[in-house]
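Morning, I've got a small favour to ask if you have a moment. I owe you a coffee for this, so here goes:

…
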Amino acid sequence: MTQQLTLEKIQIRTASVPLNRPIVAKVGQLKDWPLILIDIYTKEGIVGRSYLEPYRQRSVAAIVHSIQDLADMFKGKPLAPLDVYAESMRSLHLVGREGITLIALAGIDMAIWDALAKAANKPLATLLGGSPGPIRAYNTNGLWLKPLDELADEAAALVEEGNYSAVKMRLGRETIQQDAQAIAIVREAVGDEVHIMSDFNQGMAFGEALLRLHALDDHGLYWFEEPIVYDNIEAYAQITREIKTPIQIGENIYGPREFYKAVVAHAADLYMPDLMRIGGVTGWMRSASIAGAAGLPLSSHLYPEVSAHLMRASESADWIESCDWALPLIAEPFEIIDGNIIVPDRPGSGLDWDEDAVKHYAI
């Protein structure tokens, strides 16, 4: 029987780690990666952990304040994640249930689920009805909008890092011809057996996107991800109808209700929720049920440690995004074997901090 837990206090720490391969994309250029570490302490002695990735350091303070504000509502109360989620959502009706407020709730929610799984002495995947084991992954740690002559070596290195069968590259260069050339270079480097995903990072206007996606439609890519701004659902539905290559969206969808709206609108062929935007474990599992019922393949965006558990409990699980951006702070990284991230058979989500690294990279 799972032990009942009571919230005693929450500890929030912030850090920024250097990226092995700096981000160069339509969203900007980033050399460092800020992280918010959340530790929920219970009166029963169990600590639940999670982290958030706010992209830019100037966003950190507002998110930390929102986390603390929400957590204060539940001090001394039983930690039941569905109750916490529902009460938090009700408290946000008048200020909005997207953006920073939902991101803050997601961080708390993930930490609570970790604590509950530890109290049950089970991996999170098992607590959710799945089991530990492998999830196929693609390597997302490179192939940004870099000079074309750097792509071949980097593509080969990405495959070798974990014997991956799939990698992601970014598109949206100045011309269609440059994008086509980049795809050809990466294909030559990784061979015909490796899948190539592509991401435009919302970098195009609708008309430009139609033109470019039609031109690149026969280049053998596994998916086109986020060609236009994330919330233009009607335009995404048209793109999805017209383009043969599967369209992937979801990392910028806030909460399962917005996820449901996108699915009903036939906005994409594939979906990849992001834990901090979809609403943590609770928001993810509700969205996974929608995707499963609709027969839509579900991949993950970032947060590979927690996402791997959830993919093992999701009906239509497809690919997990393998990224190393938080690894410097994680004491025991998950294994990657033959292109699969292995969900470990240990209690909770498997997150523990390397405290020396946390101190070193603290901001």
Observations:
- Residues 7-121+356-360 form a domain with the Enolase-like; domain 1 fold (CATH 3.30.390.10).
